[in-house]
Amino acid sequence: MQSNSENDLECIGVKRHFGSVRAVDDVSLEIPKGSFFSILGPSGCGKTTLMRMIAGFESPDAGDIRIKGKSVIDTPPNRRNVKMVFQHLALFPMMNVYENIAYGLRCNGVSKSEIETKVRDVLERIALPDVANREITQLSGGQKQRIAIARCMVLDPDVLLLDEPLGALDLKLREAMKIELKLLQHQFDTTFVYITHDQSEALVMSDNVAIMNEGKFVQTGTPQELYHDPSAAFVAGFVGDTNRWDGKVKSVAKGVAEIETATGLTMRSSVRGERTPGVGDAVSVFVRPEFITTQKAGGAAPAIGKNKNVLEGRIDSILFNGANSRVLVRDGSEELVEADVVLTGGTADLRAQDAVRLIWSAEQTMCFAS
Q1: What's the CA gap between 308 and 305, in Å, rounded?
Q2: How confident is the model at residue 164 (pLDDT cuts 50, 70, 90)?
Q3: Are 168 and 299 within one domain?
Q4: pLDDT class of 300 with cuts at 50, 70, 90
Q5: In the predicted model, is pLDDT for residue 169 greater than 80?
């Protein structure tokens, strides 16, 4: 990989092993200037180890890390123009807001007048211009998050690393802070690298997301690409809600496979991934709840085209969430299938124990060779 000065951060074949454990296994990435880039994966997948190597707290066993086109492998953490925000923020409780933000500037020998200008400016940019003299204990959780970011951004880093910074917040504040962080990133026009195991955080905020598992990047792309066009079964199952079946291929033609699932259901699915399965091959099949239409059963079944899948069952329970409500349907094999529905509060709404027919298209069904 050639170094590109248009990229704020590059990792080239980075590896880090702890004994026999390959925590980071040949990872490469390029992050253009001013991007919001997330690394998303389950706990233990290696994302924190990768971030610690970018920050300089860990050394890679192989590969290179470049900031603004220059290798920083031999540069200690305090000499890298990279700052990091942790889940527990690490604000100084004995200092007020102004002193917290000014601390790094003072350590760098910046003059008192310049410190005052920079601190006032960064407080304006995070929309907290009047809190300079407040104690840290007087701030809300969201305000503390912004102050922690301001303390980093006042030092003009090339890259800001955020290690699950919303993990300690309650749900409602976490939802609000997703939007706040995206707006702050635009405000500063600095590259943010965000690690999380929460897919909603990554999808909402990011320009690009890398899905990481067992030390490797499985797929990197825009949130839309990862959601609608996953390259592997792991990505399809990890990003977004989905129904999953295991089965075997009965036939395959023109990118569409006919599959018999382990529960005896026959369905048609578009073939995804690098390898096209053959007859008899094991596959994993996925369909998202929002792509399934739920109809009350009864009367003659409607005409269904050959590229439609149909499943009959009974509503086991309803998960009410306003416009985002969902039904859990139990089919003849006692397997639960999730489908999104609109509940208006009227008499026509679906109810528990209703017999229903689920319909979805082969195009919106994804199968991957196992």
Answers
A1: 5
A2: confident
A3: no
A4: low
A5: no
Q: Compute the distance between CA of residue 200 and CA of residue 207 in angstroms, rounded to an integer.
A: 13
Q: Could you read off the pLDDT of 171-191 as tens digits, one per residue?
A: 777 888 888 888 888 888 899
Do 172 and 192 belong together in one domain?
Answer: yes
CA–CA separation, 108 vs 165, rounded Å? 25
CATH number at residue 306: 2.40.50.100
CA atoms within 13 Å, Cβ hemisphere of 365: 27
Residue 1 lies inside a defined structural domain of this protein = no
Lookup result for tokens 């006042």: 154
Domain enclosing residue 305, as ranges: 241-369
| CATH number of the CATH domain containing 20 | 3.40.50.300
With respect to residue 291, please indicate whether it lies within any of the assigned structural domains.
yes
| Secondary structure percentages of the chain, helix, strand, coil, to 5 | 25, 35, 40
User: Residue 354 and residue 143: Cα distance in Å, rounded?
Assistant: 48
How many domains is the chain partitioned into structurally? 2
C-beta atoms surrounding 91 within 10 Å: 18
